[in-house]
Model the fold of this input.
Amino acid sequence: MKIVRVETILLTIALNRDYGGSVYSVPRKNAIITRVHTDEGLVGHCVNGEGSFEVHRQARDIVDQELAPLLIGQDPTAIETLWSRMWAATHRGGRDKWSAVRAVACVDSALWDLLGKRAGLPLYQLWGGARHALPIVAIGGQYRDGYAPQDYGAEMEEYRALGLAGCKFKVGGREVEEDLARTRAARRAGGDDFVLFADANRAWSRTQALAFCRQAADLDLRWFEEPCHWDDDRRDLALLRAQTGMPIAAGQSEITTQDCRDLMLDAAIDVCNLDASWGGGPTAWLRVARMAACFGVQMGHHGEPMVGSHLLAAVENGTYVETHHPDRDPIFHQMVLGRGRIENGHYTLPQGPGWGVDFDPEFIERYRTD
Done:
């Protein structure tokens, strides 16, 4: 079997509002569909999304202009070899490394789907099959104009009604006291069995993060994600872990396995939530997961439930599938067909080969930009 064509489709969807966090805005959902076609008619595909339109556009161009020519005529099952050849594109100077890494991830994700289809196995089973269902939580608590702290409780009630087990709640965009009040409202509304996380997206200083940890000690937070500014975060995260005992998660802002390794070497994290689409694809994520097991570190995955669920279910140290409200992620909730089942706080993975899903062609035609 040989690769004969690599196809990309860029999608962009205007959302009903800005789903912003502490240091970012999300007025649109952007994604890339990648398809790897073979001479035997088998096609591997994936959709990878989150982040700015410009990064996605640049990544799509890198796939089309640089990675696709490397792959034509190659054996698609030689994924380690192909990944190494593609990764060389990230060494080129003078451009955004995030775009190049994402380009590799898009193709890598489609190649794995192709291999799963050839093997006749869901990817989570091909990669290890630790479980077939996982607890699923929302990424929520985004800031809304005119909302008082108590108003965020209704959002938690909505997540429970959607069958979700908890919420990764955004903080860091207000003073510590206000964000504590918002988080307390989420805990009250969700209840004691609602899994609650705090996520500052690197917005706070070490002093602010320490104050939040100490005052939130009674909220039974599952973990505190990316609490500190990026420029000295490994040292700050290690200090927070040592002084407060609060479980710390980070990794989604890293784009290499080596960056995640250093978080573990510096004893900075309890959970590594590398995003496969931001960090080089499933090939890179699985390397990090095996390494994390040696450090006693658990694995998360930043969003992208279609991809993240298979990776997390494959390994023994996987934790929670993350999704968004259906209005925030129309890709997963509308475009992805046969995606699996959400009920009673758990996500049961699709059982078809590869990612086990298909994509709605009418949705694609409506939102493609090329």
